[in-house]
Design brief:
The complex is a heterodimer of chains A (119) and B (195).
Chain A: H1 3-21, E1 25-33, E2 42-49, E3 54-59, E4 62-68, E5 75-82, E6 85-94, E7 99-106, E8 109-116
Antiparallel strand pairs in A: 1-2, 2-3, 3-4, 5-6, 6-7, 7-8
Chain B: H1 2-26, E1 31-32, E2 45-55, E3 64-74, E4 78-79, E5 84-96, E6 99-113, E7 118-133, E8 139-154, E9 157-168, E10 184-194
Antiparallel strand pairs in B: 1-4, 2-3, 2-10, 3-5, 5-6, 6-7, 7-8, 8-9, 9-10
Classes of the chains: A alpha+beta (119), B mainly beta (195).
Chain lengths: 119, 195
């Protein structure tokens, strides 16, 4: 292996290590939603572990939904009640952007779009 | 004859891979020319690649480093309802034992998700190979290859590993009196940027 090849290989391996160290958890930018008019907005947010597929969705910082993408699966439906509020998330892989989008509904009304990993 | 059989086997394998995929997706329907749709995104990725190439060349030629570039984008011609087809272009340079091999490859891959960030892609490809022995005339041949990529994507970060086997046409090079090929196996690590 000549010196130039060796240097190139080392640079790429170092960059790979940096990528690994950067972590695998993707956070969706928080989104506001007014559950009741006249009251302060609620914040919907979420985090997704890109390797394991574990996904958590929070309402005002409290975890309300949790689930896991199965291997070779590109969609996940989550639903639960939290303090009398029904929260549902329809998550799917967006192949065109290599990201995951979760369409969230509160009491069956569209509330927010949470996007994970979009470049 | 042996070369023709190799080509036939690789075409058959790649054809089976894609026809199997096509049957699985037919029920939902494919999108032709998705680039015409408003929601089509090219999703360019540029990456550096490094790894090992093992040319099966008679004589004193060993496996050695193969470095290069990878450019990939969503396929503008076909879009399956599940998974994605990406056009992957590879440029690799192997330089060892007084033999330099440069390959330019077009390797379409059908990707399926292993997890939200990890995708497995398989597919065939074609290429153009320059065989350049030191101190003698170079030769240019076409190639056909089959390979698999495991890609990790997290926002703008890209990392991956790829393996592919390439068979090439035969040509005279290095002062040889008979035609020879540079069939080779390559395994590479990749790191890059998603635009």
């Amino acid at each position: 292996m000549n010196a130039r090849n060796l240097l190139t290989s080392k640079v790429i391996v170092v960059l790979l290590v940096l990528v690994m160290l950067s972590g695998c958890v993707m956070r969706a930018p928080p989104q506001r939603y007014y559950i009741k008019s006249g009251e302060p907005p609620s914040m919907l947010s979420g985090e997704l572990d890109g390797l394991s597929g574990d996904i958590k969705i929070q309402l005002n910082g409290n975890q309300v939904l949790q689930g896991k993408f199965q291997s070779f699966s590109d969609a996940l439906l989550l639903q639960d009640d939290y303090q009398g509020i029904n929260v549902r998330a329809e998550c799917k892989m967006m192949y065109c952007t290599n990201s995951v989008a979760c369409f969230t509904y509160i009491n069956e009304k569209p509330a927010a779009l949470l996007e994970f990993g979009r470049p | 004859m042996k070369k023709q059989i190799s080509f036939a086997v690789m075409f058959a394998i790649s054809g089976a891979l894609f026809s199997g995929t096509a049957r699985a997706e037919d029920e939902k329907g494919w999108t032709l020319l998705p680039y015409k749709n408003d929601d089509f995104e090219v999703n360019f990725t540029v990456a550096l690649a490094t790894g090992i190439m093992d040319p099966h060349v008679s004589g004193d030629v060993d496996s050695g480093a193969a470095n290069g570039l990878v450019l990939s984008l969503n396929c503008p011609w076909f879009q399956p309802p599940k998974g994605a087809i990406r056009q992957v272009f590879n440029y690799n340079v192997y330089d060892k034992d007084d033999l330099e091999i440069k390959t330019f490859e077009m390797n379409p891959r059908y990707f399926i998700p292993m997890s939200p960030s990890v995708q497995l892609g398989i597919g065939p490809g074609v290429g153009y190979v320059t065989i350049a022995p030191k101190d003698s005339a170079e030769a240019h041949v076409l190639s056909f290859q089959v390979g698999a990529d495991l890609d990790y994507r997290n926002k703008n970060l890209f990392a991956g590993i790829g393996v592919r086997y390439m068979i090439t046409q035969e040509a005279k090079f290095g002062g040889g009196m008979v035609d020879n090929d540079v069939d080779n196996l390559a395994i590479q690590l990749r790191v890059g940027y998603n635009f």
